[in-house]
Design goal:
By secondary structure, this protein is α+β, with helices and mostly antiparallel strands. It has 3 helices and 4 strands, in the order βαβββαα. The protein has one domain: Double Stranded RNA Binding Domain, CATH 3.30.160.100. A 4-stranded mixed beta sheet has the order 1-2-3-4, with helices on one face. The model has no long low-confidence stretch (mean pLDDT 82).
Length: 125
């Protein structure tokens, strides 16, 4: 039997028009650990750091997050004027999304809906 707390999701960090330094990769991996507090069934987390200085001069650093999880995947994107700041904002947003998702599942689990079986079963002769 596998222990669920030993499962660590795959974390993919990529840079587009941006050189990824080892310290930046470590920073992203450190921040991703926050997301595991609410949901331990995360399969993969992909973080893309994009530098787009031509289209948006005020906020050239865009951080995109893609969380693959059991159920619907979660995606979001954040732009700011600093790379580390955009990573922080992205993790805050993903954290809120996962926290909301886990709260919704707890509410559904604690308040099951009544099901009328007579309408679901086929009539037999």
């Amino acid at each position: 039997m596998m222990n669920s707390s030993a499962h660590t999701p795959e974390v993919i960090v990529s840079g587009i028009h941006l050189d990824l330094t080892p310290s930046l990769k470590f920073y992203v991996n450190e921040k991703v650990g926050r997301l595991l507090r609410h949901e331990e069934r995360i399969v993969r987390i992909r973080v893309e750091l994009v530098f787009d200085g031509k289209n948006d001069v005020a906020n050239p650093f865009v951080a995109k997050g893609h969380v693959i999880i059991h159920g619907p995947d979660m995606n979001c994107s954040v732009a700011s004027d600093e790379c580390h700041k955009s990573v922080d904002l992205l993790m805050d947003r993903l954290d809120r999304m996962l926290r909301r998702r886990s709260r919704l599942f707890k509410v559904k689990r604690n308040h099951p809906h009544a099901v009328e079986l007579a309408t679901l079963l086929p009539k037999t002769a």
